[in-house]
Specification:
The chain is mainly beta. The protein folds into 2 domains: 23-162, no CATH class; 175-323, no CATH class. The protein contains 1 helix and 25 strands. Strand 9 (113-123) and strand 10 form a beta hairpin. The longest helix has 19 residues, at 2-20. The chain is globular and about 55 Å long. It starts with a helix and ends with a strand. Keywords: Signal. Residues 1-19 form the signal peptide.
């Protein structure tokens, strides 16, 4: 009987590990097509690898190819936040990923630009999209057809390590509060701006409320990387709130950044600050791989520079569960 019980325990343990089976993806192969039947019929492909050095995440793109089949023209370069790389002279481009979103702009001749490699995220030491990789799901695919504008993306993990598994099954958080602060480094770390937002989690839907912002020369917007056309909250003219439904996949990830947009054209820069991370593994809500929100450990914290003036400003973020 003891032998049967031990075998049963091993079987249950193996089954649980297999079900969770999270991985940290360190390299991907990305291929995509985009066709609007007018200006662009673009095929894009590249290999991406991720490294972390002194707390900064770097992404290196190699074997980059972006071709517009309508004009039979290849892109001459790709850019990330104004940092550009000429892909006609080099086949390796490295960018420091400032707000987790790997979003590149391809340059063609005659000042034509095209947004490519959308949806790829480099965060918490791993690649993802709105979905998370696992050893049984090594390719994340998406397809859309919006009034004849067709896009198709395939991102396959090519190198990975095992990710930690949550040791406990924690209670589900019902309400969060996020606070993002920008400090003036050269003025004794005085506060430049602060934004706050309340998040109620109903199923997989985020219901925001209580948005406040103290920035004087900017207005602030919370954007999820897959919903750039629909901000979670924004104070451009008056404060608006929009519900956002997160991915229903068993292994899913939602990242939200605060973008400070200039009220005056004399102030340049669009600046994303990662302000919230929500992971679902086996329907358990986590703040990072293997770490759930609990009453004893209810906050996720982050510190980072603020672009485009990292020498003058720093940021501090707290994302805390207020109610379980």
């Amino acid at each position: 009987m003891m032998l049967k019980l031990n075998l049963l325990f091993v079987a249950i343990l193996f089954s649980y590990t297999y079900a969770a089976d999270p991985i940290s993806c360190k390299a991907v192969q990305y291929t995509s097509t985009f066709n609007d039947n007018e200006q662009f019929n673009v095929t894009s492909s590249a290999s991406f690898s991720l490294t972390i050095n002194n707390g900064t995440t770097y992404v290196t793109a190699t074997n980059i190819s972006v071709i517009n089949l309508i004009t039979n023209e290849q892109a001459t370069g790709v850019c990330y936040y104004g940092v550009c790389c000429n892909i006609t002279t080099t086949n390796s481009c490295t960018f420091d990923v400032r707000d987790t979103f790997v979003l590149l702009y391809a340059n063609f001749t005659n000042n034509v630009t095209f947004t490519t490699f959308q949806g790829l995220v480099a965060d918490d030491g791993t690649f993802s999209t709105t979905k998370l990789f696992s050893s049984t799901n090594m390719c994340l695919n998406s397809f859309s057809n919006d009034s004849g504008t067709i896009s198709n993306h395939s991102i396959c993990c090519t190198s990975s390590t095992l990710a930690p598994v949550a040791a406990i099954n924690a209670p589900q958080c019902k309400k969060f509060k996020s606070r993002t602060t920008i400090y003036n480094i050269n003025d004794n770390f005085s506060i430049f701006a602060t934004t706050q937002l309340i998040w109620e989690i109903i199923g997989r839907t985020i219901v925001p409320s209580g948005f406040t912002d103290t920035a004087q020369h900017y207005f602030a917007c919370y954007f999820d990387h897959s919903f750039f056309n629909l901000p979670l909250a924004c104070d451009e003219l008056l404060t608006v709130h929009n519900n956002i439904t997160m991915s229903n996949d068993t292994d899913a990830k939602t990242l939200v950044s605060v973008f400070y947009l200039p009220k005056s054209l004399t102030i340049a820069g669009i600046n994303g600050i990662l302000t919230a991370r929500l992971l679902y593994r086996n329907n358990q809500l986590l703040m990072s791989e293997g770490t759930p929100f609990t009453p004893q450990n209810n906050c996720w914290y982050s510190n980072a520079p603020w672009y485009p003036s990292p020498a003058n400003h720093s940021t501090s973020v707290s994302f805390c569960c207020q109610e379980f």
